[in-house]
Protein 1
Amino acid sequence: MAAVSLRLGDLVWGKLGRYPPWPGKIVNPPKDLKKPRGKKCFFVKFFGTEDHAWIKVEQLKPYHPHKEEMIKINKGKRFQQAVDAVEEFLRKTKGKDQASSHNSTEEKNRRNSSEERGKQSAGEEKRKASLSEGKVKKGTGEGKKRVSSVSSERGSKSPLKRAQDQSLRKRGRPPKDEKDVTIPESSTVKRVMTGTVAGFKWPPSVSEPVKDSDPHFHHFLLSQTEKPAVCYQAITKKLKVCEEETGSTSIQAADSTAVNGSITPTDKKIGFLGLGLMGSGIVSNLLKMGHTVTVWNRTAEKCDLFIQEGARLGRTPAEVVSTCDITFACVSDPKAAKDLVLGPSGVLQGIRPGKCYVDMSTVDADTVTELAQVIVSRGGRFLEAPVSGNQQLSNDGMLVILAAGDRGLYEDCSSCFQAMGKTSFFLGEVGNAAKMMLIVNMVQGSFMATIAEGLTLAQVTGQSQQTLLDILNQGQLASIFLDQKCQNILQGNFKPDFYLKYIQKDLRLAIALGDSVNHPTPMAAAANEVYKRAKALDQSDNDMSAVYRAYIH
């Protein structure tokens, strides 16, 4: 196929990693973002997403010639929103072009009018000169020369053009041709998501603070380079990590949900057990992305909403596992996880050779290892995949998934992980994900207890709690987590986004993990005592921020 010439401002289809082609626009990169070495590439902003990246020329196609082809192979909702955004952008651009053409026509008319007035003026001067020829013959030639000079000057340039030239000459430089003007970032892009795609916003530039993103996670987009080594560019909200060698433990980023509207759902039948705060959001996103899902929950009424959305109902965990290819589970604690697998009509009774089980519960390494052993002993395949996040991130499909166990099963879950999360990590053998998840939640729980401690100390020393929050939000600790949890406390709103009883459970398990390797965890131990106090005050089913009440009672 003949090479197609591309340039700044062109609309294109860009191939980003494993994703299908996605509509974007070639734009100027941020000033401090270096162009990757190697093959020629362009910096592309993708419509309908928050992604932008360096894309190699061979991975780009012009938008219009390939539009129908791409629409046929991509059917996702977000893909259609992205195409709608492109069409809206084109309509607005066309409107601007028409306005520009109209202005150009008016300028031409004014120029022609000026020339006509110049000619009329010249004719009038000639007539006057002719009438006075007998009286002032000596001055006639000079008069004609003067009139001719004036009319020529007036006819060659419009008043607007002359004023522009004079202004430029005053500044000491010649008039600049329009072709030399650097193409600015069109303001149309920023307004493009009105109407059907109003929720979309281009990401801010590198120099601007990233808004509405979770600072608990680094925000990187993988630079498109020849090297497979770790190479980050801090330019978007999405976290993309190159695979890196770390002995027996490998970390691999799965597909981000930046373009999860274009997900091709697996043809495997998916089961899901447990529709709590996290599970509900996960199932909703699986269904939205076109997966076939069978659900079960201990309280059957919770299944009704998902049945209305297209899910199938399983009567028991064993039935779900036996009728599905991959079954996910997300329950509260180690006991619930074991009961689900080993109890009456449990998961184990439905396991047959080739059946797959993915446990997304946050439990200890010993529990998950035991479950893996019994599943594999029946010929099944096992993956642990606890998730970092809260109810809101679950609903938004922005969880971080930590996986370990069967690597092939991890790959088979790719479309599911894209639907439910922004990033997934593969951490090697069973037990590694459980350990990492407990460490993450230990840090989070300890931080929450420290926030509550600081707010109460401010109060008892006569300081404004709101001012403390304002100060923290302007410093290095600023984050969505900090702001949201402080707002919960200041407003007295402890509606659960992450149950207090579960963060206390995770702290307890993290402390036990430290004990198992003789590693001190005094900060976590202190925080754990505060949460235990809050539980004694009947705060178990409130949000973790309700730990504040342990300090004021």
Protein 2
Amino acid sequence: LGLCVSRASASVLNLNCCLVLLPMCRVLLAFLRGSQRVASRKTRRLLDKSKTFHVTCGVTICIFSVLHVAAHLVNALNFSENYNEDFPAINAANYRGEDPRKLLFATVPGLTGVIMVLVLFLMCTASTYAIRVSNYDIFWYTHNLFFVFYMLLMLHVSGGVLKYQTNLEEHPPGCFNPNKTLRQNMTMPKAFEELFPDYTTECFPQDLPVPEPFVQNNLMRICSEEPKFQSHFPETWLWISGPLCLYCVERLYRYIRSNKPVTITSVISHPSNVLEVRMVKDDFKARPGQYVILHCPRVSTLESHPFTLTMCPTDTKATFGVHLKVVGDWTERFRDLLLLHSNQDAEILPIFQQRRYPKLYVDGPFGSPFEESLNYEVSLCVAGGIGVTPFASVLNTLLDDWKCYKLRRLYFVWVCRDVESFRWFADLLCMLHNKLWQENRPDYINIQLYLSQTDGIQKIIGEKYQALNSRLLIGRPRWKLLFDEIAKCNRRKTIGVFCCGPNKISKILHKLSNSSNSYGTRFEYNKESFS
């Protein structure tokens, strides 16, 4: 039973170790999302589940690894206690009663298995939500142990512990071997005593033909030779070599692509600890809604973080930018390096001072669900706090030209705790609002700003923000009424729902999107999820 369970669990592990790497091939996913090869929106939306698929494979690997280890612990005990001198080739133990710990720590399969269990334990525990939130560095560094895990996995299957018989025709299971039986002083079957009285006490002749009556009676099959065993051909590398090579090639391509540092053109410090970085890079192209991975060697040699693009390069300008909220060690050190005087609220440096910026490398861009926001006729975009960043690039794109996209109506809902946070993109919202009014399309975008916590200031400071002050509401959105209103105004249409914010808001929107309504309107839910 132990051998059967270990073999079955090993097959499941082979499959999941193969699949778990595919969702991490970001370049491949971005290519599939942006190419015409995946024309169906429903199929493209499946790519948004890449992180969920990766986590599912990881959990499956953990579960079946426990099952695999438990089965091999039973196998080690059985090999030791049930050692059979007749078949030394298939015994992992060297003698009866051998310490099972020797099989676990003194053999290549055993030792590599123990180390893989330790590596998997570190990766699994460091991937929990509590550790990722409290100390992202631990998650980052332990997760990169996957390469060690795969190298050990290659060695683990090369031990050849499990074997199979190669001469089943010459030595079928349950066959009778006269020579072996006589040497062990076992009782000769009565049929053989009557047929071969002269060979009851000496070796059975190898070339003696088997009596026809005995064969016809099917009493017992006679072995023509001793059983021969051979180690199973290791199949694990057939499963993981393809995805592992694909992942390594992609990482090499990403390293070459991001090897040249970008040119930082400006750094702006916004209210509520938000930093905007604008930069330029040769031949950099991106679509609205995509994200990049920033790496600053002076902050951390190995660590890098994803940030959504808030400004994409266009045909007329090559500048692109990101907004990042200073909430951790990495962002704090990054901010201190970028700002010459950290106590200043804003700073835009001229070109001759560019040498004072640290080297910054950009990997990407990579795809995200928000690329689909422009492919719906009607879209509902909901942002919570700094979660507005994916929609900023969409709004910037619409400011350049909105007529070339399928989108004809955009509901934009932004919820913040303090009024100062709205100033991150207040200028952008006002410019887009004024442009649509000038082009006689004021109904193109519906802006709703919600201030969840008020301190008495109920309007955005500045005369130029009058258009937004009339859309600023105190409290939280009444989501059910909002969905009913949108469904009523867009009967029998498919509306894309996009959310980037707290999980509480996300769960509410997901539930409402799956609810039916009396207007025949269908809501398709999308959520930001970095791979």
